[in-house]
Write a structure and sequence with these properties.
26% helix; binds ligand EPS; FAD; binds flavin mononucleotide
Length: 368
């Protein structure tokens, strides 16, 4: 389903080639000032058509706020935002009506919606639906910043090139937010340049590449979350896996933790100015589904873009016949560049949701 959240709920609607897409957000506190300029700048980081490493489809991605705000302040009642689609080339998808693009959701979407779905541009499965997600996440980001919580991300890996990682213990707000201020969000500009070259090489050979987005959070209070099925990891995972093309997610050391001994992986506790901290942060700031007060760190793996212009074998699922397919449309040779603010948005929503529902010691103390 396209509805998510406990204390902060979002419901995303629309199709990539329909009249518009949007989101209804319920549970925002009343009286939250909205910085529209900051929100527009955040949405521009994701918008298509701004860079050679992304799809040339050009959309303004300007949200029309239909409810839930008076001036620039939230009313606390449901906030609805509509983003119109302007630059659709639906003829690109004419012959795709029943020839499944390998790697995309055409075939499974056909089965799920009994052939009634709008397949143009991927319909409701399109990466375009991350525009309203980023709008909602931008509001969550502003809510978190008022509580001293900051969320930032960068491209950790792309096409075999690695960026410098976030420091899991000494991560500060400036380092966290720096990649987001550049058109190609890496910590190491030289690594970013090499990634760009690899993306361009893939594009020139009618192919695509994937990569990994690392996301960090500083200032999140200790003691927020729950055990078992409603932990911070669960909540973050449920929304991050809602981002199209995400195939993997790890927290802290993640899969690498499996190769370590307990003595290497445990994070020793100590006191710093009377506050409980850990010397290392292999846990990625979460223990038992509950925040430890250390930076929260996670990495999301994105697959290479499915829609490539090479001839591919497929099946026409209405005709039940094998055929060859050359995919048209204006596609991202690598979705990871535009997915960086999307991951920040998803994580911000998960943490705002958890903070609004916080019941525990520090979590409750920190609530205004
Ligand atoms: C920001 C963003 C942009 C995307 N752009 C494209 C694209 O141009 N072409 C494409 O085939 N897939 C693109 N995708 C991925 C598809 O939407 C996704 O692979 C598809 O819906 C199937 O879903 P799944 O990969 O999660 O199984 C994009 C994803 C994101 C997050
Ligand atoms: C429009 C956006 O991205 C689109 C995501 C997408 C897909 O299959 O996910 C396919 C492309 O759609 P089209 O073929 O209509 O150009 C991208 O342009 C956007 O992110 O705003």
């Amino acid at each position: 389903m396209s509805t998510w959240g406990n204390d902060l709920k979002i419901s995303i609607f629309g199709e990539s080639h329909g009249p518009g897409i949007g989101v209804v957000i319920d549970g925002l506190p009343a009286g939250l000032p909205i910085d529209r300029e900051e929100l527009a700048a955040f949405m521009a980081r994701r918008a298509p058509g701004r860079d050679k490493a992304s799809t040339p489809r050009r959309e303004t991605d300007r949200p029309e706020l239909l409810s839930g705000v008076r001036g620039d302040v939230t009313t606390g009642t449901p906030l609805a935002a509509l983003i119109r689609n302007n630059d659709t080339h639906s003829s690109d998808y004419g012959e795709l009506a029943s020839a499944a693009r390998p790697g995309h959701a055409d075939y499974t979407g056909f089965l799920r919606y009994a052939g009634w779905g709008d397949v143009r541009g991927g319909g409701h499965f399109s990466g375009r639906l991350t525009a309203p997600l980023v709008f909602a996440g931008g509001l969550a980001k502003q809510l978190l910043a008022r509580e001293g919580v900051y969320v930032g991300a960068h491209i950790a890996r792309c096409a075999g090139v690695a960026d410098a990682p976030f420091d899991p213990v000494r991560l500060d707000r400036e380092t966290l937010l720096r990649p987001g201020a550049s058109a190609f969000p890496t910590l190491d500009a030289a690594a970013g340049e090499r990634m760009r070259e690899e993306i361009e090489a893939a594009r020139m050979s009618t192919d695509s590449v994937g990569g990994v987005v690392e996301c960090g959070v500083v200032g999140f209070p200790a003691g927020v979350g729950s055990p078992m099925f409603d932990g911070l990891e669960n909540r973050i995972a449920s929304i991050v896996f809602g981002i199209p093309a995400v195939k993997g997610l790890e927290f802290g050391d993640g899969f690498a933790a499996a190769e370590l001994r307990g003595s290497e992986h445990n994070d020793p506790f100590r006191l710093a100015d009377g506050k409980v901290v850990t010397e290392t942060n292999h846990a990625g700031g979460i223990l038992g589904g509950i925040s430890s007060g250390m930076p929260i760190l996670l990495r999301a793996a994105f697959k290479p873009t499915a829609s490539i212009a090479k001839p591919q074998r497929t099946v026409d699922f209405r005709e039940n016949a094998e055929r060859e397919l050359v995919v048209k449309g204006r596609h991202d040779p690598c979705v990871v560049v535009r997915a960086v603010p999307v991951v920040e948005a998803a994580v911000s929503l998960a943490l705002a949701d958890a903070l609004l529902g916080a019941k525990g010691y520090e979590g409750l103390q920190n609530r205004k």
